[in-house]
Amino acid sequence: MKMRRILEKAYHTLLACTGISSNQLKTDRDRQTDILCGVVGCDASVLIASKPGNTSGLAEKDAHDNKNLPVEAFDSIKKAKALVENKCPGVVSCADILAIAARDFVHLAGGPYYQVGKGRWDGRISMASRVSFNLPRANSSVDELLKLFGSKGLNLEDLVALSGAHTIGFAHCEHFVSRLYDYRGTKKPDPYIEPRFLKALQMSCPPFGGNVDVVAPFDVTTPFSFDHAYYGNLQAKMGLLATDQALFLDPRTRPIVVELGKDKQRFFQAFSAAMEKMGSIGVKRGRKHGEIRKDCSVHS
After folding, report:
1. CATH code at position 184
2. 41 marked as part of a ligand binding site
3. φ/ψ of residue 38, rounded to 5
4. How many domains does the chain have?
């Protein structure tokens, strides 16, 4: 508790003298800071850069499943950390900065301003090999999602609310191209894609070649606003990923999709509660379990 009070005080002090959290993200707003904390926890392990020639494997950041994370987002966190270190060296962790930056970006994009518990230390382990076991896949079923989220202490409403983060951001074609041409080996498109939406996606993402770097917005209606349009899209068969659309097709999650789609404030409340809960997953505290990095991309 003493360490937590120290970190809380230090954080409020640095906000007063630099305004790093909000001001940095206002500067970089158009860059889409997509690094929201994942279900693996908020220990900033995703910020560690892989070392050339490292025989132990790639860092989490370079896992194939993290390909959608934009380089600019990492740069924004790095700039924020540099400002913090200049004013309060060795006090505020990258994990706290990441959690705060995620919250502030959501708010700047029009979303809720939820509470972020502080006092995390940075994780000492970052391995690409563990990512696939801790993040949803583009075609995860609701059963698989519930198992994954449940293992982290998150419930059905948390799952649907956190999926609403797809109201902003983009995905590469490779994550949904099979839905457009060969859904589950049928040689036909997914029948649960709205025809005009399907045609638009096919124009951007051909079945073979030419789509490596092409992206599409998760939310085709308001891609740069954090709102509840995502849930309306699912009801209109315009979910980008199969795992998104599955939330409306499954009878367990459909009522929550409909409810959140009707009321933006209800979505904001559910999302805030889920983010606060997720922010406590895998928290590291103290030198025995973590570190406070000077550079977020390198272990201390």
Report:
1. 1.10.420.10
2. yes
3. -95, 175
4. 2
